[in-house]
C-alpha cells in the first residue's frame, strides 16, 4: 500500500551515521551497518530521536552510490571512528509512505519522481562527474523488524529535498 505523495516542511535534524560507497547490488552492505550506529549511541547513553534512515548523497546507478546509514539524534554530538555526526537539512521535501517489501521501493521511487515532475517540482540535486549529488534523499525505516517481522508490512517513507 502506498500513500499519495505530499510536500512537507522538515526542520533541520542532527544525526549520526556511517557513510560508504556501494553499488546497486551491494546496498545491503551499508544498510546492514545501522545496528552499529545504534550500538554506538547505546554505548554513550544517547537515545535515537527518530527512525533509522539511508541517505543517498551521490547516485550513479551504473557505478557507485555514496550512502549514509544513520539515525537522528535530539542534539548535535561529536562522531568518533566511522560514526560521523551530521545534519539532515531543513526545507521542503516531497514525501511518500509505503507499506510493503523493501524491494518495492524502486517502483515507489519512480512514482514519487513522476509525481514531482507532474507538479513542476525541482529536486535539490546537481549532476557531477561522480553522479547525481543530492542535498538530501532519504529512505526512512519506520518499522522495526523485531516488532514487525513480516517485510510485507514494513513502513518506509521516502523524503527527497526540493530545490529552494
- Rg over CA atoms: 15 Å
For the record, the CATH architecture stands as Alpha-Beta Barrel
How many strands? Answer: 10
Q: CATH homologous superfamily?
A: Regulatory factor, effector binding domain
First-to-last CA distance: 30 Å
Apparent shape: globular
> Tell me about the biggest sheet?
10 strands, antiparallel
SSE string, helix = H, strand = E? EEHHEEEEHEEEE
* CATH topology group: Multidrug-efflux Transporter 1 Regulator Bmrr, Chain A
**Number of separate helices:** 3
> Which runs of at least 5 residues are low in confidence (pLDDT < 50)?
none
The percentage of residues in β strands lies in: 35-45%
**How many domains make up the 3D coordinates?**
1
Helix coverage percent: 10-25%
What's the CATH class label? Alpha Beta
Give the overall pLDDT as a whole number: 95
Amino acid at each position: 500500500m502506498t500513500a499519495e505523495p505530499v510536500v512537507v516542511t522538515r526542520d533541520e535534524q542532527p544525526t549520526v551515521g556511517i557513510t560508504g560507497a556501494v553499488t546497486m547490488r551491494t546496498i545491503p552492505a551499508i544498510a546492514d551497518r545501522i545496528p552499529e550506529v545504534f550500538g554506538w549511541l547505546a554505548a554513550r547513553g544517547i537515545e535515537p530521536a527518530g527512525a533509522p534512515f539511508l541517505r543517498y548523497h551521490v547516485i550513479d546507478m551504473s557505478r557507485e552510490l555514496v550512502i549514509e546509514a544513520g539515525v537522528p539524534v535530539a542534539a548535535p554530538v561529536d562522531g568518533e571512528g566511522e560514526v560521523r555526526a551530521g545534519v539532515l537539512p531543513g526545507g521542503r521535501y516531497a514525501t511518500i509512505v509505503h507499506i510493503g517489501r523493501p524491494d518495492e521501493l524502486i517502483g515507489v521511487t519512480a512514482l514519487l519522481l513522476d509525481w514531482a515532475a507532474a507538479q513542476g517540482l525541482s529536486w535539490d540535486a546537481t549532476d557531477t562527474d561522480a553522479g547525481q549529488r543530492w542535498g538530501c534523499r532519504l529512505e526512512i525505516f519506520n518499522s522495526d523488524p523485531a516488532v514487525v517481522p513480516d517485510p510485507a508490512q514494513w513502513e518506509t517513507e521516502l523524503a527527497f529535498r526540493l530545490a529552494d
